[in-house]
């Protein structure tokens, strides 16, 4: 006799994690959308100082970080939720909002956690194909919203395509969504968008109680290893609900201290964004010179097609042999494509050289 698991264990898809972390130091890690730069020195100092207090539990209210975010965004601290990465808030939102008979609507391909949210709760997932420009098809998503819809997910910029809808389109969409539906705008990569000021979307959460803006310290702040995300909520009840379904102390003390310190260095954040965007533009141009289709990225990664006669597995194996790791399109919802994180200039050049050789 073997132990028996719940039905949801059979339903939940395995998250497609990137491989290669054990390959050593001489590898261009372009698979997980991590920052190519480490945390700022003062952030390291703050986290190091906090180590002397790890015999104590972290602040369960996350109040220091919530107040720092409130000051940064001019947003009420009681409407700011903190999580162990933005994924933590997403999965908690699913538990708080979804159940059998409920529906969740999102575009596809998109963030790989979204299918897990439906599978874990027994809700019905409605995956809407992206439009011809690899962006979320907002009109078709509206058409799929019913009285059973509890949650709509908008990944903007979208992962894995990097594409984004302009804020005006998002605003029109939100205005037409029924008030009983929670709309989470997943903005994990918004700092890298050049469409408009990333802070422009804040008014959505100020004006609409059913809107949640989801962001993270993992990308532009270089804190992926500490796991810290946050949500700016249109209604305080969303924060209370996601905290209610989670374990206590869901954000560790080092992450809270590091994130709070990182917020004090917006000039450095802007400099890092400029570097990433410049490398992104150059990489896109080089890939298009190879005759490859490249989506219009507004993130810190690029989504591009392989030639029709190319074998995706063989290309990935060849890249790995040359010390370059990228993400498989097959694992992310579209075979024959690759997602490539923007790395340091030498890493991006290494990827291009390896790809040219393989193709």
Described by strand count, sense and barrel closure, the largest sheet is: 7 strands, mixed
| Overall mean confidence score, pLDDT | 95
Percent strand equals 15-25%
Poorly predicted runs are: none
The CATH homology group name of the largest domain:
Type I PLP-dependent aspartate aminotransferase-like (Major domain)
The radius of gyration is 20 Å
Number of helices: 14
Total of domains: 2
What's the CATH first level of the largest domain? Answer: Alpha Beta
In the CATH hierarchy, the third-tier topology of the largest domain is known as: Aspartate Aminotransferase, domain 2
Task: Categorize the overall geometry.
Answer: globular
Structure description:
With 359 residues, the protein is an alpha/beta fold. The protein has 2 domains: 126 residues, Aspartate Aminotransferase, domain 1; 222 residues, Aspartate Aminotransferase, domain 2, CATH 3.40.640.10. The protein is 39% helix and 15% strand. It is built from 14 helices and 12 strands. It has a 7-stranded mixed sheet with strand order 2-8-7-6-5-3-4, with helices on both faces. Helix 7 links the parallel strand 5 and strand 6. Helix 2 packs antiparallel against helix 10 and helix 3 packs parallel to helix 10. The chain is globular and about 55 Å long.
Task: Offer a concise description of the structure.
The protein is an alpha/beta fold and 359 residues long. The chain has helices spanning 7-11, 41-50, 63-73, 86-97, 113-121, 138-144, 167-176, 202-207, 236-244, 253-262, 266-289, 312-321, 329-332, 345-358, and strands at 28-29, 80-83, 103-108, 124-129, 149-155, 182-186, 211-216, 229-233, 301-305, 324-325, 327-328, 337-341. Helix 2 runs antiparallel to helix 10 (253-262) and helix 4 (86-97) crosses helix 9.
């Amino acid at each position: 006799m073997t132990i028996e698991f719940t039905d949801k264990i059979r339903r939940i898809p395995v998250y497609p994690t990137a491989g290669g972390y054990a390959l050593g130091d001489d590898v261009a890690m372009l698979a997980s959308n991590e920052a190519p730069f480490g945390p700022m020195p003062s952030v390291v100092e703050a986290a190091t100082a906090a180590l002397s207090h790890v015999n104590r539990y972290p602040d369960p209210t996350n109040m220091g970080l919530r107040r720092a975010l409130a000051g940064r965004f001019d947003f009420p601290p009681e409407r700011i939720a903190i999580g162990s990465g933005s994924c933590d808030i997403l999965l908690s939102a699913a538990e708080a909002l979804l159940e059998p008979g409920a529906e969740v609507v999102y575009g596809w391909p998109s963030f790989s956690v979204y299918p897990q949210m439906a599978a874990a709760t027994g809700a019905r997932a409605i995956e809407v194909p992206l439009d011809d420009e690899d962006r979320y098809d907002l009109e078709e998503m509206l058409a799929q919203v019913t009285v059973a819809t509890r949650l709509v997910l908008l990944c903007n910029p979208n992962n894995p395509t990097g594409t984004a809808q302009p804020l005006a389109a998002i605003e029109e969409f939100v205005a037409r969504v029924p008030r009983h539906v929670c709309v989470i705008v997943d903005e994990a990569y918004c700092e890298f968008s050049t469409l408009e000021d990333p802070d422009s979307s804040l008014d959505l959460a100020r004006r609409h109680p059913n809107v949640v803006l989801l962001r993270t310290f993992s990308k532009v702040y270089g804190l992926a290893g500490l796991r810290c995300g946050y949500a700016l909520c249109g209604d305080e009840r969303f924060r209370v609900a996601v905290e209610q379904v989670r374990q206590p102390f869901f954000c560790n003390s080092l992450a809270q201290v590091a994130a709070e310190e990182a917020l004090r260095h917006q000039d450095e954040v802007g400099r890092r964004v400029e570097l990433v965007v410049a490398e992104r533009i150059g990489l896109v141009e080089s890939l298009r010179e190879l005759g490859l289709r490249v989506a219009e990225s507004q993130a810190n990664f690029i989504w591009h097609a392989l030639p029709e006669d190319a074998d995706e597995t063989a290309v990935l194996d060849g890249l790995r042999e040359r010390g370059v790791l990228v993400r498989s399109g097959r694992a992310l919802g579209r075979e024959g494509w690759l997602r490539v994180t923007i790395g340091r200039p030498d890493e991006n050049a290494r990827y291009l050289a390896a790809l040219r050789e393989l193709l």
